[in-house]
Amino acid sequence: MKPDAEIAEKRRFPYDMKIGIIGGTFNPIHIAHLRIAEEVRDRLGLEKIIFIPAARPPHKEPGDYLSFTHRLAMVELAIADNPAFIASSLEETMGGTSYSVHTLTELRSLYPGDELYFIVGSDSFRDISSWYRYPELFSLCNLAVVERPGVEIADLTSPLPVAMSAEFCYDFAAQRLTHRSGFSVCYLAGIPLAISSSEIRRLARSGHSLRYLLPERVAGYIEERRIYR
């Protein structure tokens, strides 16, 4: 049995660590991804952010995105100088279609003593009712909804079906939903950076400069391997 002092400390600090989870195709990762992660880490007081490239995105055809090996390599290059950022090959290891509910279930088992925050853009949260087994997400971790260009969400309950409203309490002043599981959904406004991976791929195909859109190491990786051309 643990000493009384350690048990008391656990009660004061019920979680070992606060960890952010940011997933995506990262085809390629760019400055907006990194700024979002850093802003969420700073605002919510997170110790770590785990970047998880989607191995097999359910909403894309295999020919629509670069190989997982390249995308993971670019993530690793992009975050190499930030000790709070970690790259993970979890979805490739798990196999199968990369559904968020499966990934978060696995992370919940890998980090049982930590408080997890799943970082999603406001554009993705707006369409969350179309996600695979989406009601389960709210019972697995907290959600940090980040404002994306042109998609401001004034009411976090608006993207959710009316039938789910009874599962939440909403604090308008704090812009936070609390789910009956105890996990919450918070909204972080003021982080829109209008950079897109599709525009970066277009520029790369036409031979234009990618400077200031990507970390230099990632831009160099793309140029040396003539990726997207």
In words, what does this structure look like?
There is one protein chain. An eight-stranded mixed β-sheet has the order 3-2-1-4-5-8-7-6, with helices on both faces. The chain has one domain (17-225): 3-Layer(aba) Sandwich (Rossmann fold), CATH 3.40.50.620. Helix 3 runs antiparallel to helix 8. It has helices spanning 4-12, 31-44, 68-78, 90-94, 100-110, 122-126, 197-205, 216-225, and strands at 18-24, 48-53, 85-87, 115-121, 142-146, 168-171, 176-179, 184-188. It is built from eight helices and eight strands. With 229 residues, it is α/β, with parallel strands linked by helices. Residues 1-13 have low confidence and may be disordered. Strand 1, helix 2 and strand 2 form a beta-alpha-beta unit.
H/E element sequence? HEHEHEHHEHEEEEHH
Please report the total strand number as a whole number.
8
Structural class: alpha/beta
Question: Which whole number gives the mean pLDDT?
Answer: 90
Helix content: 25-40%
Rg is 19 Å
Strand content: 15-25%
> Strand sequence of the main sheet, in spatial order?
3-2-1-4-5-8-7-6
Kindly provide the name of the CATH class.
Alpha Beta
**CATH architecture field:** 3-Layer(aba) Sandwich
Amino-to-carboxy terminus distance: 60 Å
Report the biggest beta sheet as strand number plus sense, adding barrel if it closes.
8 strands, mixed
Poorly predicted tracts of residues: 1-13
**Number of helical stretches of at least 4 residues:** 8
Number of domains: 1
Q: Predict the CATH topology.
A: Rossmann fold
CATH superfamily: HUPs
The backbone outline, from C-alpha atoms, is globular
